[in-house]
Write a structure and sequence with these properties.
Elements: E1 12-16, H1 21-33, E2 37-41, H2 50-53, E3 67-71, H3 77-86, E4 94-100, E5 115-120, H4 125-136, H5 144-152, H6 156-166, H7 170-180, H8 185-192, H9 196-210, H10 215-225
Helix pairs in contact: 7-9, 7-10, 8-9
């Protein structure tokens, strides 16, 4: 089901997928290139994480520091993702999807705030490892197109919640999203068709509203809230 858990290691990566050459390679490369333990959870996927938490070898506190990689092609993908998102023990876990078809729209009902990464079928292994490292640094590894689509397509309830809590306008949410993806002021200005000075004014207002001092803090805030 999964390898023995090293209780002295704080961070783990769990791959929810059937055993295959691909998952074996991913596990091998993560264990080799990144300083975390990687495990394949390949049986009874619908009972993850309950089965894991009932294992005497596992320290439940470690789950909150983990990345859960979910294969987009496994059976009952939606149900598994929802179950993990709704489980209190996984509330601090970071979820990433892999084997995503480039032309497939990510379902909004499973795209929760915990999903920090999306890896496509044609992604190179080096890109995959770079993305995993970014997620471990609390960054988001999601394409601009996918993230903007999620925020602005048919998500009025979600945006109302953000505006109510933090008083951000639609334009400020858009700019903050671009900041979280590493866009410069000039790139933001080109993207949303405003001047660079207007971008700076928006950023000043955003930083004040969400109580941060710089772009890095703003990106971290966006990763948690958006």
């Amino acid at each position: 089901m999964y390898n023995n858990i090293d209780k002295n290691t704080d961070k783990h990566i769990f791959i929810l997928s059937q055993l295959s050459l691909q998952t074996d390679l991913i596990t091998y490369m993560i264990n080799k290139e990144i300083n975390v333990n990687c495990h394949i959870f390949d049986q009874e996927l619908d009972v993850f994480p309950v089965k894991l938490l009932n294992d005497s070898q596992f320290n439940p506190s470690q789950l909150g520091k983990s990345i859960i990689l979910i294969d987009r092609e496994i059976h009952s993908f939606k149900n598994i993702t929802k179950e993990i998102s709704n489980n209190n023990d996984c509330s601090n876990s970071k979820i990433a999807l892999f084997n995503v078809n480039e032309h497939t729209t990510v379902d909004k009902d499973v795209f929760s705030k915990q999903i920090r990464g999306i890896f496509y079928k044609d992604d190179h292994l080096d890109t995959f490892l770079k993305g995993i490292k970014a997620i471990l640094r609390n960054e988001v590894w999601i394409s601009r197109e996918t993230l903007l689509q999620y925020i602005f397509d048919d998500s009025s309830n979600r945006k109302r919640g953000i505006n109510r809590n933090d008083n951000l306008t639609k334009r400020e949410i858009e700019i903050l999203t671009l900041v979280s993806m590493g866009a410069t002021n000039d790139e933001i200005a080109d993207k949303v068709f405003i001047s660079t000075n207007t971008v700076k004014t928006h950023l000043y207002n955003i930083f004040k509203k969400i109580d941060v001092q710089n772009r890095i803090q703003a990106a971290l805030w966006a990763a948690k809230k958006l």
